[in-house]
Amino acid sequence: MKTSKQKKLEAAGWQVGSTADFLELSKAEEMLVNMKLSLAAEVKALRIQLNLTQQDLAKRIGSSQSRVAKIEVADKTVSFDLLIRSLAALGASRSHIGKIVGTRKAVKTKTSPKKRLTRQK
């Protein structure tokens, strides 16, 4: 967000902060969310790279297409175990998975913008 826009919003009574601030996440919770989002994004990227459908991946992991859809958006019901099993089924190595988890960058998604606005009371 541009500094000028941020200043205008703050002058109008809005508070600008990160998604983690808005959700009041601890550093550990923020780290877990970012790891889960990174793993889910990589599942989708590898599946597409391999020219597989969600149904194809579902067969590989013994699940359903709807479950794969949930995996790819890091649904709250999806476990880390399932994310890692999906990556392994797509041919990801342990070191590749480690690199995904080890990245420090927050994943940017359409549903999780970097800045959130809240109206100050």
From TrEMBL:
SMART domains in the cross-refs: HTH_XRE (SM00530)
Domain HTH cro/C1-type: 43-97
Residues making up the signal peptide according to the UniProt record: none
InterPro entries listed in its UniProt record: Cro/C1-type_HTH, Lambda_DNA-bd_dom_sf
Domain of life, per lineage: Bacteria
Molecular function as annotated in GO: DNA binding
Listed name of the protein: Antitoxin HipB
Species assigned in the record: Gimesia algae
